[in-house]
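User: Predict the complex with pyridoxal-5'-phosphate.
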Amino acid sequence: MDETIRQIIAFIRQIFRTQGFIPLHEPRFIGREKECVLQTIESTFVSSVGSLVEKFEQKIAQYTQSPYAIATVNGTSALHLALKVAGVGYDDEVITQALTFVATANAIRYLGAHPIFLDVLPETMSLSPDCVRDFLVKHAEVKSINGKKVCYNKLTGRRISACVPVHTLGHPARIDELLQICQEFGIPLVEDAAESLGTFYKGKHTGTWGLLGVVSFNGNKIITTGNGGVILTADEHLAMQARHLSTQAKKSHPWEYVHDQIGYNYRLTNIQAALGLAQIENIDFFVQRKRWLASKYREFFDGIEDIEFFSEPLESRSNYWLNAILVNDLNFREKFLKLTNTQGVMTRPLWRPLHMLRMYKGYSFKNLKITEQLYERVVCLPSSVILPKE
Ligand SMILES: *Cc1c(COP(=O)(O)O)cnc(C)c1O
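Assistant: Here is the predicted structure with pyridoxal-5'-phosphate placed in the model:
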């Protein structure tokens, strides 16, 4: 057991070409980052007024082929706003997965709505279309209100006002099937694509399948603005609403301060957008290098018994944001985490499933067998972009 772990550590050190500390995921600033940020400082437009935010939004829209992109201060606020404009309200219910970063459920709770945690598929680590269908067929009732489908949970009487699958670790969910089910039941689909910029499913970028999608530019994501996020949508009205709410719901006026709603201070700043503009120029290179790293890991783990490398699902082109392996038991996982981390090779388990956290106990609908199995078996490996040798 220890011998296998030592072998893995040696491989990771060899591929990252260092005997020093290897983080899980660090950003790479290999383009015009310094120049762009410096220019912003010299212009004095460092805050949320400035032309670079819109420019950055255009670049993101272009890259993802999303008609609209609204940049926000982080992915969590993007999720919050996306859910709000999707129509999620107080005491509603929102279907999602427990196998995700806590922000997914927090954004739901910010609106006073309740998450319903359903299980994931082992092949995608993302929301299982079959579980969603089973749940809705058994417990949902669709009413027609003003000619629009509205979905209710017959058990609780609450409205089910959104479904939020996560493209876990950058791998696409079965988003076409989920979309189909949601449409049948009149439930808006909001994709948590925080981790999946650069990931395509059936040739279409993740986060552009549903009514809205959300991407994060946190420091540990594939590109970063320090802290940042974006809402993607093809719906002009929702895009305008989201942008309005992100800028304190201030009405445009030549000099007066007039606000027509309770808005949020969620707009990305110009200085962050400057960083993002330099980063997005390298997205193709980053994805290419991350896919190269994944192929090296896959090759290596093919020769290791009892460990399985997690590969992209069928019909996907994943950004391999975080590489992951599945080990066969909890004891091995603990030992692996301990040895790698004490030796300066940063590895992490998956997030503790949310239904196991104090504030989200009782929100899982049924047992979440696959979620719990994955949590016990998955270890995430160092995944930063490795620059090619000079
Ligand atoms: C990173 C992340 C978020 C939140 O994004 P922030 O920019 O950190 O606020 C939400 N959901 C998932 C799945 C994430 O990985």
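The pocket of pyridoxal-5'-phosphate is lined by residues 74-76, 100-101, 103-104, 166, 192, 194-195, 216, 218, 229 (CB under 6 Å).
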